[in-house]
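Complex record, two chains
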Amino acid sequence: MSWLFLTLPAASIGAALVELDDTCIGQWMLSRPIIVGPLFGAVLGSVWSGVAFGALFEAFSCEHSPVGGFLSFNGCVSAVCAVLLSAGPAALPWPADFPAALGIGLFHARWMEPFVRGLRASIIQEMESDLMGTSPIPWQRHLARSLLPHAAATAALVYCACAAGSLLGWAWGVFPEILKDGLSRSFGWSLWLGWALLLDSLWRRS
Amino acid sequence: MDALLQRRMFARSFLLQAFWNYERMQNLGFLYAFEPALLRAYKDPAARHAAALRHMDYFNTQPYMAGFILGVVAGEEEIIARSDQSLRPALVARCAAVKRAMASGMAALGDRIFWGAFRPACAAATIFLWALLWTLRIPHPVLLGSLAVLFFFNWTALRARWDGLRLGYHWQERLPEALSNQSWTHWMVPARRTGLLLALVCAAGMFMVPPWGSFAFSNVLVLAACWALRAKGVSALKIYAGLCGLGCLWAVLLRLA
């Protein structure tokens, strides 16, 4: 129970705060999967799963540049969820963990973040009406309205997805052996896919 | 630009993307970072707010390169604030045009340097450092390797943000010429080549480590096939989906055999 009511909420809030570095605050690279994966792995006592998933999701996120409004998938959320799902009580095996975490990262980037960004349109209108007067702009209020929904949505997604980890563990248990074998084999190959993506991103632009 | 103004704009530039929206992208983030310059240029709140409204337009650039544009526009805005009323419309139009042109130019340069070169090169360097420190049996290889690369990346990115403010303010429209003399803009190709070399060394090293070493030929085949598909423009997700399908097919064939 301490996992559901203590460790997972704390990890979800931590993940949401670190994830703000990805597109909102700073861009100090703290939210890169290669940094956040080992960090959460070390905190949760599973450094090597953090290293493996961090490096793999980093390679996947090198495919696209975050130019303009384009969001391919959220490597930070994927890496954190992968570590939480494998280090949590469900102890999801890596071949099942990887596609699940990839799906969570895709959901965050393609549905959740565009929705949160859409909510910010009202801040522009408020700001324009603020500027019609002469009183100082209430930046703190606007910042809170912009960043809090983003962080709250990320924390909620990480918490719900990882709390459902036990369901995923159960589903993996009843999966046909052939499919399990196939997914395990494809996970082994996906490490080489990761290398191919990294090499391509460095080679192509050279 | 004095040090106090530079420090205030530098600190605020970290929130450039905090208000990112689909309608006008980084416009509010730009205004937030630019507010100290407006406070300096316009003492009258009404004039300041009128100037701020002009900066509510569409704005988008690479976040590490925003300092250059903030510096250029701060200089332009000081000229507007000091000018006669009759000259203002022309100066305002020039300021908006310079801001727009600089934003897209700097975005193209920053995307190539930071997203296209430094980011993948830093990923390769991190993995290489992890492997090297672990092989040399140095304690905490993951922590040390990650910190070293974070330090290198941020040193470059923070320098671009900090120097950008000063250079933009000082050079104004001559900024592109000044940038061509900045040493860090020439690091792009060496960074990519170093990253590629480190990634190749690490990938080759993995073939010597069990369990991958025992399946070296099939792994080389998978690596080459994935790289070729990616070079053809096939997305990583599609390649992974293909690998899953292939893995299941392989498992079925093995059962049947």
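Note: The CA atoms of residues 73 and 107 of chain A lie 8 Å apart.
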